[in-house]
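Students often ask why we bother predicting the structure of a whole assembly rather than each chain alone. The short answer is interfaces. A chain on its own may look different once its partners are present, and contacts between molecules only exist in the joint model. In this exercise we take two input lines together and write out one structure for the complete complex. Read the inputs first and try to guess which parts will touch.
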Amino acid sequence: EAEVAQSPRYKITEKSQAVAFWCDPISGHATLYWYRQILGQGPELLVQFQDESVVDDSQLPKDRFSAERLKGVDSTLKIQPAELGDSAMYLCASSQVRVHEQFFGPGTRLTVL
Amino acid sequence: GQSLEQPSEVTAVEGAIVQINCTYQTSGFYGLSWYQQHDGGAPTFLSYNGLDGLEETGRFSSFLSRSDSYGYLLLQELQMKDSASYFCAVPTGRRALTFGSGTRLQVQP
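Now the answer. The structure tokens for the assembled complex follow.
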């Protein structure tokens, strides 16, 4: 069964360092999402791509976060510099036509020290 | 904007039935989804209601009343493996999901 791949699974970094997360969606899924989930809360959208175009990045802290999906397939989310408050699970998801059914990757657990 | 309210925690025993409620306020409504997330795991899709009424998928059912801005997830014949967090979610006009804060279900033997 096709799955969304993410790496790394865990990342520990010090504040002010740069970190990057990678996501490979299910083949054929045009829409890709990055969510951030703080422990005990629901996921919150950071950025949404349709193919290689950004559809919604209104909640992305653009002074330190960037995201790209250059060829409309895999995607990278970067944080520079990382802050203590960025410690969270970063989830990537993809969807096809059934927008209410999104497929999530295993996530990257980020800890900023 | 969108906001969803659901109970923070529910406890039930194996074999029982539990209902997790969700009320929502949205600027536009495109349906209500439910996701399950085990500790340390990724959210997985359970059910979707685009229209009023009940949708059944095995032991899980989901209900929607658009006039009441209310839905629920019903879990029957509870098993220990059902212990997880359950999120209701609504798609925005741009197709991303807005999630509730989640209901942690603890199933006891």
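Check your guess against this: The CA atoms of residues 87 and 102 of chain B lie 5 Å apart.
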